[in-house]
Give the backbone structure.
Amino acid sequence: MRRLQILVVLALLTLAHTSIFAQADRLVRVALKISDYPFDDGTRLSVLWDAPEDSNFGFVLLRGAEGDVKDTVLVALQGPLDYVDSGLPPGTRYRYEVALFDKGGAGGWRIPAVAVVAPEINAFDRARLSELVIIVLLFAVILYGTFRSKEIFVRPIAGLCAMEEALGRAVEMGRPVLFSAGWGAQLDKPTTMAAMNIFGWLAGKSAEYGARLTFPAHDAVIMTAAQEAAHDAAQQAGKPEWYRPDEIYYVTGSQFGYAAALDGVMERERPAANLWLGTFAAEALILSETGNHVGAMQIAGTDSTIQLAFFLVTCDYTLIGEEVFAASGYLTRDRLVLGGLWAQDLFKVVVTATILAGLIGAALGWHVIGDWLAGI
Amino acid sequence: MRRSLPLLLVGAFGFAMLVQYFTPLPAGRAIYGRVLEWMQVIFAAGLVLGGFNYARTHLRKVGRPGGDRVYSALALAALILMLAAGFMGGIERGSLFLWLFDNVQVPLQQTVFSLLAFFVASAAFRGFRARSVEAALLLCVALLVMIGRIPVGEMMGIGLPESARWLVDVPAVAAKRGILIGIGLGSVAVALRVMLGIERAWLGGSR
């Protein structure tokens, strides 16, 4: 119906827009205001249209770049309108016009250009205001949790408790501990950073117990960071001779090449324990099932929800999602890191309460929270 | 200095990236684009570093006595062959490099990938043993979903496909979202701790 209306308007405009233009000015009182849309990325203009609801005329909003004769039909208007014209390139000047037509089909004409405006880029994009508020709140809560001086209780996490057991098993059996941060991410991902935090702790304990720790990496940057972590950990443990750079080596960036290489390592070296901690993809099951086949004790932890199921059935212990991020504080008992965990839990309660409020609100027909959550 | 400079850089870049996410100013986008370019440079440099490390590791292993040295010799031979093919004949269509990639590397990768079918079967067999109430529940749900997803389930006419779809779309997604919320919060917390230098184990050792 709207398309037909627009087609009719265009047809009428073609026929008689110049001759009836004077009548438009006399018959209809309308106001059109175009302005830059505030706090955006410079791609929107705000269009405010004020016209009587009971007008005998129909209207169409037209937009054209300055100096261009071709116009784009934006929207058919009925009465007042608050419209955001989006997707515009920043800095380009646009001319807006309104075309009028008699609903009886008598003719059509245009109100001349009321504004020539260019969208401007602002310093802050208000479309991201919700995210900013959440990030600021989260940062504030985490900082408060980190620097408050109260002791906190952390529930025992079986997978983390078993890490020392894995090291002890390796020492007793005289076999290595195999560590992998997965193939799925680089060092810039928080999960890989969390995995490297665990690796740093593990290297220190391995040096202390004299366990052999080997880490075939899929990325040279991760390999270098791991070598640094192991080197420093050995120094701090007072056993610099424990560190051997060739235990932490680059394998390949190819996903299944990496899986095949680690399978080979497991078959040849028969590690006492495998630690799969990081972001994993399809290689997760190939690795953990081979580890199971060689009889290694296996501890896994990942943020890949799909791979969690595979780890759960093939590994002795599995850290689920956020437990990987909690590992560093849990293992080192660092009060600052543990404080952050308290803050995470507090924020999780807030998020859950907000979702519940949105759910109840939606059930009662009040969609404000639900719409806000959907818009983030 | 050895620790404080990396920490300072991580903090400065972390907060700069955070600010640029919220500002649409061209300067923010330019910085973001430049940082992405630097990441590409670091990645390329990492490949060279990785290549050297790969060669050094296998050269050492070749020099050691034992049956495993043959694998390292093969790995080195493959590295040299691919490097020579790439540098001397290029990597365009019809080149030796691409022929080797298509006819050796790709089938090998597909072979390893296809192992997943067998691994899924053996893992499922182990995972679905009803040793406890939870495991029995898991087995029942898995059977329901599996039968619901195949034509036999539909032919039985007792609403199995719908039940399977509901299980996958509602309780499974609810659990997954719960995990994802935890992961999101954990990621932000780790990122903030790293930016502020509270978490330093990734730099080596403890704080």
